Structure formats: C-alpha cells, structure tokens
Amino acid sequence: MADAKARPRTASRFAAVQALFQAEQAQTSPETVIDEFVRHRLGELPGSGGFEDGRIPDALVPLFSRIVREATRQQDRIDALLAETLSADWPLGRIDPVLRAVLRAGVTELLMADGPPAKVVINEYLDIARGFFDGDEPRMANGVLDKLARDLRAKEFAG
Question: pTM here?
Fold first, then answer.
C-alpha cells in the first residue's frame, strides 16, 4: 500500500485491518495489538524512508485505535450483520481471515454515527482489499459493504 503514505486515513484503516487480523489469529486483546502496532508498526523510524519492515508511517493513531477497539467491541453485532449479508455458500468462517478483517473494519466505520460518508467507507476498504488480494475478494468486499451501507445508511442513498 505504497500510496497510503500520502493518505493518512487510508494508512490508518490499512493498519487497523492488519491489527484485526493479527488479534484474531493470535487470540490477543485489542489493547495488546494496538500497543504493539503503536510501538513497532506505526510512525516512521528516525532516518528511514517509511514502509521498511512493514511499518505504516503516516497512520493516524486515534483513527486506527478507534477502528480496532470498536470492531472488537461490536464484533458479535458486526458478524451477525455480515452473516445476514453473505451468501449461504460463503459463511463468515469460510472467508479468508484478511478479508474478514477488511469487512469487519468497514462495517465498524459504517456503524459510526460520526463516521465518513458510506461511499467513502466503501471506496477506502475496496482499495485496501485490492492491496491484499488479486482475485474476486475485492469485488466481494465491495458488494457486501455496499449492501450493508444501503441498509445501515439508507438516507445517504435515497433519491
């Protein structure tokens, strides 16, 4: 995600997806993962050019932390929304864990009353999915987030 350096909010979302994936895989608390990312993955190392060793130099820690905390706090609700939206052939547990993290982060932002417009959320997470996947996963992420955005933020799509 080399262009994330010029887009701090995108970098924050990209880091949040990575953190959600890591927390699920390691069965680690969100606070532990947030702390680890803040200390070791976010921000630029002095004298470095940016993305070395998996660092995300321009991520905004408050946005990153909020997405990770909210996604974890509301995971049961988010997973229920995702389960209702996904086809019966693709239950949430069958989806690639990185794609699951992308979807959870995206739905988290759609649920934020003070979050960005739904179309911004969809576009951001579509870009992030494209950074992780070359196949059909970005299209799946786009479809799922678009459907949920229309349900959760119907006023934004009216007229």
Answer: 0.89
